């Protein structure tokens, strides 16, 4: 489902997967979307019309998808412990494959220059060189990784595990700082200007922290369900522009959109 970033208003629904959707992302200009699902596929969609563009078959559940900056390639990761790089101009071609994880991959991300890949499995975060397809460094954490976010401003990696919200250099995996939350955290996101971060988890609350001091600024109850994804100010402008400039074509008024 696609919603406007600053208001939460519904824009459209992507229909087509036959299993639970584990991951979703927009490309840089919010014209394409990609999804990862339990039906052993990743899909690429036209984010303006809602049309399904490409289906990429996998051998197991797909958990994560990410576009390169130019949207030419799609990175996927999932339960078969493999990273795959698809050339979207030749989706029928075999993808490049990177192996090395020892458990199912939960998150896979490109660096801002697309020269490195960051991926997380159960208790390990790995940094890979895109050209050589080899591991550069690995980071072991105490508990299972629940989320990972790459912040290009400052090359920061936000990792959550247990009650910990940790910040690492995306280039070296060295820890910058960490905060402890009152409850197990499922997801956290750092504001691009690095002023604050938000986190949500098992206690049905959303927390807002000062990034520099670690001071808790706000907390709100998440009434409907456990908070699993938190994104402060991500692609808000792109989504708003997309909705206003393409108001006749951004998904019809009902979810009967093939997307």
Main pleated sheet: 4 strands, antiparallel
| Corresponding CATH architecture | 7 Propeller
Roughly how much helix do the residues carry, as a percent range?
Answer: under 10%
Give the N-terminus to C-terminus distance in angstroms.
9 Å
The coarse overall form would be: globular
N-to-C SSE string, H for helix and E for strand: EEEEEEEEEEEEEEEEEEEEEEH
Plain-language structure description:
The chain has 259 residues and is mainly β. It has a single domain (2-245), classed as Methylamine Dehydrogenase, Chain H (7 Propeller), CATH 2.130.10. It contains 1 helix and 22 strands. The strands form 6 sheets. The protein has a 4-stranded antiparallel sheet, with no helix packed on it. A 4-stranded antiparallel sheet has the order 7-8-9-10, with no helix packed on it. Strand 15 (145-151) and strand 16 form a beta hairpin. The protein starts with a strand and ends in a 14-residue tail after the last helix. Residues 233-259 have low confidence and may be disordered.
What descriptors fit this protein?
1 helix; Methylamine Dehydrogenase, Chain H; four-stranded antiparallel β-sheet; mainly beta; 46% strand; 259 residues; disordered C terminus
Provide a compact summary of the structure.
This protein has 259 residues and is mainly β. It has one helix at 236-245, and strands spanning 2-3, 10-12, 21-26, 32-37, 41-46, 52-57, 62-67, 73-78, 83-87, 96-98, 107-110, 116-120, 124-129, 134-140, 145-151, 156-161, 164-169, 175-180, 185-190, 196-201, 205-210, 216-221.
């Amino acid at each position: 489902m696609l919603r406007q970033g600053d208001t939460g208003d519904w824009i459209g629904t992507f229909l087509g997967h036959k299993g639970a959707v584990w991951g979703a992302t927009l490309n840089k200009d919010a014209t394409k979307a990609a999804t990862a699902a339990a039906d052993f596929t990743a899909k690429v969609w036209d984010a303006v019309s809602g049309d399904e563009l490409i289906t990429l078959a996998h051998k197991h559940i797909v958990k994560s998808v990410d576009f390169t900056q130019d949207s030419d390639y799609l990175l996927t990761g999932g339960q078969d412990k493999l990273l795959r790089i698809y050339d979207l101009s030749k989706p029928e071609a075999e993808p490049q494959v990177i192996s090395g994880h020892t458990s199912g991959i939960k998150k896979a991300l490109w660096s801002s220059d697309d020269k490195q890949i960051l991926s997380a499995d159960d208790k390990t975060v790995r940094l890979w060189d895109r050209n050589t397809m080899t591991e550069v460094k690995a980071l072991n954490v105490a508990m299972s990784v629940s989320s990972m976010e790459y912040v290009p401003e400052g090359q920061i990696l936000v990792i959550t595990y247990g009650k910990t919200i940790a910040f690492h250099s995306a280039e070296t995996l060295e820890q910058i700082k960490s905060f402890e939350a009152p409850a197990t955290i499922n997801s956290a996101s750092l504001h691009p200007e690095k002023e604050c971060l938000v986190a949500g988890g098992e206690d049905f609350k959303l927390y807002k922290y000062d990034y520099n001091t670690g001071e808790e600024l706000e907390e709100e109850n998440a009434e409907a369900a456990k908070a699993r994804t938190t994104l402060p100010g991500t692609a808000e402008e792109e989504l708003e522009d997309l909705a206003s400039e393409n108001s006749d074509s951004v998904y019809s008024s009902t979810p009967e959109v093939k997307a």
